[in-house]
Amino acid sequence: MRRLTDLPFEARNGAERDDRGVATIFLILAMTAILVGAALAIDVGRYVLEARSAQNSADATALAVATDCALTGSPIADYTPYRKDGQSISAPACVENSATITVTKIIDQTFLKQSIGDVDRPATAKWGTIKTAATLPIVIADCEFTAVLGQTVTMYLDDPKPQSGCSSLPGGFSQLLGDGCNVTITAGNLAPGKTGGDLQKDVPCITDPNGPPALPYPVLIPIYNAQACADAGCKGKGPYLIKGFALLNVTGYSFNGNAYDGSLDKKCPDDRNRGKYCIRGTYENWVTTRGTPGPSEDFGVSQVYLSD
Amino acid sequence: MFRSTRTEEHDDRGVVTLELVLAIPVLLMLIIGTVVLGSYLSQKTRVTGFARDAAREASLGKELPTEDGFTFTFEVGPCPTPPDPKESVRVRATTTVTLRSIPFLPTFIPDTISETVTMRCGG
């Protein structure tokens, strides 16, 4: 203390000035750091938000494009509702069962830079046939599936007189061994059949008024290889070699006078005494979320999913 | 001589204190402002994420999810059962902003954040 006060005035004064300079430099550096930190925090936050939003739009648009591709073969809809203002998408196209959409958003007027450029987020949605699905325990021969999508058919359980030239087998549809609506079918596998079952009890998904929504509604139906079945002598009792899945938009059913709805009456339109159990519906191109994707024969049912 | 030096010293310290008093509000505004805006962006990102998840669930024909502090509503939809691939569903996710006020500034941050995501049914 004494030594300090003993120092010449000039020296002490100089020391004071030095201190003040350090403080100012420190303040400037600290303020810069704080400002840059604040700007960085907010800019990065905004970038993350825009990236997330762009990814959402990319996913939604890719799924919509893939759905249209699966249904019609080309992207037909207006995809503006699937993205946000200021986002732009790459041209939608259906390429080899997949549609890739990149959503771009230009981020400008940030704190640190005039423009930090684009944020690009891609999404790829694929579509394809179904490998495995939980369906109604009924099965249709591939020769009964006329492959004319949009055509209305009336099918009879174990039809003794096939209606569409399917000569090797009882036509219409057959029942599968299963529990309610929850029989799980895999394409390429054999599905055990069931004879003489009461479909009315076995298919509560169709007959239960509290279960399914009002007709018409689409039912996923496995299609089996009739030739393989005939060669193995399965004659309406299976097992059935499953080829793939078709979608029958059910418009009516009639089960032995006990349960009926939609376009069918108490009795089947049975001019040739074909059977007491019948289902009427239309084969349709459809996109479903049921089942797992896989290779199987294409009967017009596709599955759409995000691949990455 | 001695006296005058001491007076000078006192004056200087006063200036520093005054500068500090002036700087503290600005510093507080900056720091709290960063926290508030950062928190807002973070919440907005979370809402966007949940809106997407909810829209995806809805497009698959499932129920809207529940999440603490977030509400989900249908703007368009829900999808018919079973999902019709020609229809779309739009879900809005909303949450309340927790940090809104920055000192010395009027509150300009909205009290709720919401975000919509549109998705095709059955996709």
List its traits.
heterodimer, A: 308 residues, alpha+beta, 10-stranded mixed β-sheet, 5-stranded mixed β-sheet, 5 helices, 18 strands, 33% strand, B: 123 residues, 3-stranded antiparallel β-sheet, 3 strands, rod-shaped, disordered N terminus
How is this structure best described in words?
The complex is a heterodimer of chains A (308) and B (123). Chain A is α+β, with helices and mostly antiparallel strands and 308 residues long. Helices cover 27% and strands 33% of the residues of chain A. Chain A has helices at residues 2-6, 9-72, 199-202, 204-207, 226-231; strands spanning 87-89, 98-108, 115-128, 130-135, 138-141, 152-156, 173-176, 183-186, 190-191, 193-194, 217-224, 240-255, 259-262, 277-283, 286-288, 292-293, 297-298, 301-306. In chain A, the strands form 3 sheets. In chain A, strands 5, 6, 7, 9, 10, 11, 12, 13, 14 and 17 form a 10-stranded mixed β-sheet that branches. A 5-stranded mixed β-sheet of chain A has the order 1-2-3-18-15, covered by helices on one side. A 3-stranded antiparallel β-sheet of chain A has the order 8-4-16, with no helix packed on it. In chain A, a hairpin with a 6-residue loop joins strand 2 (98-108) and strand 3 (115-128). With 123 residues, chain B is α+β, with helices and mostly antiparallel strands. Mean pLDDT of chain B is 82; it is low at 1-6. Classes of the chains: A alpha+beta (308), B alpha+beta (123). Chains A and B meet through helix 2 and strand 15 of A and helix 1 and strand 3 of B.
